[in-house]
């Protein structure tokens, strides 16, 4: 992304929307076998925003999650990716935003596809970027030979997020 300011008979500033690219999300995750255990699903996306280049950005990219379809999105103020150097983010202001969700054991969400919809909101204009969508399958094995069952959408994602 070209972040240079254009100067013509004074200063002109073009405010471009952030550009999101290259979402990175595991294709499959197995839920823990034990009822009190959780696993962690980390995910990343590139975010180029000239206005915030090199700054510690706590809410660089927003995401929403939908289970088994792309019609029931669950927005939450806790769903965002960071580019602030706080784990799981690797480096402050490097343009690679990151987050994680906790995936607990489940007796009802046994084999579900989760869709992640990413977008960014420009801090100056409050305009939103286009969505990027990625997906992962999260499977709960019942036992070593157990069946996989998909439970119809109930509004409960069976996931939790850090703040």
Please provide a written account of the structure.
This protein is mainly beta and 163 residues long. The chain has one domain: Sandwich (Immunoglobulin-like). 0% of the residues lie in helices and 42% in strands. It has a five-stranded mixed beta sheet with strand order 4-10-9-6-7, with no helix packed on it. A four-stranded antiparallel beta sheet has the order 3-5-8-11, with no helix packed on it. It starts with 5 loop residues before the first strand and ends with a strand.
Question: Which descriptors apply to this entry?
Answer:
mainly beta, 163 residues, Immunoglobulin-like, 5-stranded mixed beta sheet, 4-stranded antiparallel beta sheet
- Protein structure class: mainly beta
Largest sheet: spatial strand order: 4-10-9-6-7
Number of domains: 1
Low-confidence stretches: 147-154
**Termini, distance in Å?**
30 Å
Quick one: how many beta strands?
A: 11
Tally of individual helices? 0
CATH architecture: Sandwich
Order of helices and strands: EEEEEEEEEEE
Helix content: under 10%
What's the CATH C level? Mainly Beta
Mean pLDDT, all residues: 79
Radius of gyration from the CA trace? 18 Å
Global outline:
elongated
Task: Work out the oligomeric state of the chains in this entry.
Answer: single chain
Largest sheet: 5 strands, mixed
Per CATH, what is the topology? Immunoglobulin-like
Strand % is 35-45%
């Amino acid at each position: 992304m070209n972040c240079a300011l254009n100067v013509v008979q004074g200063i002109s500033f073009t405010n471009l929307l952030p550009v999101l690219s290259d979402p990175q999300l595991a294709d499959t995750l197995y839920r823990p076998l034990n009822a009190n255990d959780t696993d962690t699903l980390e995910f990343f996306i590139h975010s180029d925003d000239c206005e915030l280049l090199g700054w510690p950005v706590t809410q660089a990219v927003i995401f929403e999650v939908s289970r088994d379809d792309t019609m029931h999105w669950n927005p939450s103020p806790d769903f965002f990716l960071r580019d602030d150097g706080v784990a799981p983010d690797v480096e402050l202001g490097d343009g690679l935003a990151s987050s994680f969700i906790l995936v607990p054991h489940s007796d009802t969400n046994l084999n579900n596809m989760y869709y992640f919809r990413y977008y960014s909101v420009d801090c100056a204009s409050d305009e939103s970027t286009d969505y990027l969508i990625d997906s992962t399958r999260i499977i709960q094995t019942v036992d070593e030979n157990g069946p996989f069952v998909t439970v119809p959408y109930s509004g409960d994602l069976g996931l939790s997020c850090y703040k």
